[in-house]
Structures are given as structure tokens and as C-alpha cells.
């Protein structure tokens, strides 16, 4: 009887985790479409990503401080990793992605970024000698073919080389995110790592803007989307509170409930969400060839993930059930 009750509880736990993970993916996925509206209205990508990171950092400030009570020693011991996480995994990834969506469809830019698992496999192979499985190699080839189709290289369509390079930069940043997030030996709580990363990124972006390295321009006029116009603070709050702070929190909670392997699969729903919001807010839709390429990219990434060695991972235990 206790076993059946425990099994039912585990099923509810997993179902709730999946629901939260999908919520995280859709929260993250809306950022590009909202940001494109700001950029089209005169905001620079640097200004859009800076305000997003600041809003997200301030929203997570109190939870971060609470999570770090008695754990500041772990922060000091891992300050290099935390700085790399904030500047590369959080800031560079978002900035490069916003630069990419300024000149290309948000869904296509995100799909290029989501080839990051392929880059991680290649890095581990070259750096640590961890040879990928046959399934991972097949997945990488399938993802590459999909990328070629998605970018319309076969038909000779005009490519925005700058946008592709920015999206590839976001892919490198995302690969760093996966590599650093996989470290479970730091003693830094995940929500604190997210909060510190956002805060470091916000300060870094602001300093870059003040010294003129990162162009900063914005407007307080209404922002136009497919459904009509909204005040400028609506997309700002959407990308800061929903697509940054809430998205990170939901992502952390779902990963703890599901484990990183299953959560990373569900996170691919972010690509679907990006395309959905790109259509709803901007009227962007891929053509047939691009849609086939997108499906191949997603399928290839899934194969790469399936080819990864299964490592034991922590999943938060269920509370004990009374007999």
C-alpha cells in the first residue's frame, strides 16, 4: 500500500516538474520577440539586454541573499566560476542573442543558439578526450544538415552573416552555461548562482555602456507589435520579470524536481515558444524548408542528448508518506 502511494506521489511530482519546466521554457522563449519590438522602436540591443538583466537581478536580489545565509565562503571559493557564469553564460549569451534577433527571425536565432549541446560534446571530446557515442555523432550531423536548410544556404538566399555570427556567439555562451551549470560541487545554491550571475552581468553591461564600449540608446515612446502598440515599460517588464527572473526560478525548481537530463530535454520547448511568440508578436513564420531544417536541428540535438552518458544526478526526494 505504501509502495503504491509512493509511486503515485512520484508521478504527481514528475508531472508538476514537467509543467514547471514547460513554464520556464515559455518564459525564456518570449524574450526575443518582446526585445525585437524594443529594438525596432530605436532601442539598441545593448540597452534592451541591460534593462532585462537589471530587472531580473533586482527581482532575485532578496531570494539570493536569503539563499546565501551562512554560505558566503562558497561564494569566495568559487568567485572565478561565478564571474564566468555572470559575464559569459548569462550576459554574453543574452547580448549576442539580442544582437542576432535585431537582424533575423527570433526562432531561427534561438535554434542556432540551441545547437550548444553539440558544441559541448565537441569541447569535451577535444579538451577531456571524452569520445562522443555513435548516437551523438549522428545527432551532430543531423543538426548540421538542419542548420544548413534552416539558413536557406541550399537555395542561395541572402544571408545576414552578422546575425548568424551573433547567434553562434550566443551558442558558445549557452555551451558555457551548460558546462558551468553542470557543476554540483561548488556549494553555491542554484538560485543564488542565477541571482549573482544576473547582478554581475548588470554591473558589467552598465560599465560597458558608460565607457562607450556598448552602444546604449532607448526611447520612451510606444512599442509596436502585431496586435497593436503598448507603453515601453510593458516589454521591459516582460523581458525582465517574466523572461529573466521568473524564467530562471522556474528553471531551477524544475531542474531540481526532474534532474538536469530530463529538464534539458523539456527546455527545447523554448524553441517552439520563441517561434510561437515570434508569430504572435511580430508575424514571423519560417517557410517550409526552414521548418524542415528546424525539425532536423531539434531532432539532432535530442540525439546528441540521448547519446550522453547517463550520470547519477540529484532529484529532490518526495516527502515520506504515512502508511
Structure description:
It contains 15 helices and two strands. It starts with a helix and ends in a 17-residue tail after the last helix. The protein has a two-stranded antiparallel ribbon. α2 packs antiparallel against α12 (233-258), α4 packs across α11 and α6 packs across α11. It has 323 residues and is mainly α. It has helices at residues 2-29, 31-40, 45-59, 61-67, 72-77, 79-101, 106-113, 116-128, 134-150, 161-181, 190-210, 233-258, 260-266, 269-282, 288-306, and strands at 223-225, 228-230.
Fold topology:
Layout: H1 2-29, H2 31-40, H3 45-59, H4 61-67, H5 72-77, H6 79-101, H7 106-113, H8 116-128, H9 134-150, H10 161-181, H11 190-210, E1 223-225, E2 228-230, H12 233-258, H13 260-266, H14 269-282, H15 288-306
Antiparallel strand pairs: 1-2
